Amino acid sequence: MGKIFEAMYGADGDSVETETEANKQHEVVEEAVENSVRRYPENLILPLGRTFDGNAKWRRDMRKVTINLMVQADPQEVGGKAVMFSGMSKNVGTSTVTAQVAKILAAEYSRHRVLVLDVREAGVSDAMTLDRAMMDGYSVDDVLSGCDSEGIFRMLVSSSDEQGRSAMISHQLREFIAKAREHFDWVLLDMPKQGSTPLADSLGRVVDGVAIVANTGVTRVPAINAVEEDMEQLGINLLGVILNFRKYPIPSWLLRFL
């Protein structure tokens, strides 16, 4: 505020301002203060939230999953990559998997910066969302100005069923992801279940790949094959399928002897 203070009242040795000049300077100050407030939308960045750490085997498996994603999406380990996570159905643990992958990636890369875009179905949340902030006039740089430190950042995105608004949100998010690649090591999209939002097909073409989360005991192979064919036709890179809730009928101690 030092420079603004001087602009408003005049530095030492300046002549006394006229009323008109003082009003102009006052307007400059008000505009500067307004810009400083609008530079960063309030309540947009949220904590990652409570994550499920699981048992030791699940954590080891998730580390293997993450390493495989890194090798396929970022073989040179240069960062700036974007991956979408989408569930075959509800309650398959997509958000849990995304959060765990984010924690592992943040520990692996030098800048330790990971952004999670938590895409919700339309009307689910009343909180500040990324699409709402951008519709209100915040630029990509405005939003990213609040993400200068290390860590995992999470932002909500509200999808829309309206064709016109959905197309606008899609355009804004594609622009945002392109810029966010320069700011973060990884951008992870936590999407609703397959087929629930048109954003999945649009954003799937601009990310480096998509990981499908499936419930091992519920999801059927033909359903996964159908999704894979659809993605291939749309030019979407399917990185692989994450089998969550996998259970082993034979105890691990007994497997050692087989």
TrEMBL record:
SUPFAM superfamilies: P-loop containing nucleoside triphosphate hydrolases. GO terms for molecular function: protein tyrosine kinase activity. InterPro entries: Bact_polysacc_biosynth/exp, P-loop_NTPase. GO terms for cellular component: plasma membrane. It comes from the Bacteria. PANTHER family: FERRIC ENTEROBACTIN TRANSPORT PROTEIN FEPE, TYROSINE-PROTEIN KINASE. This is AAA domain-containing protein.
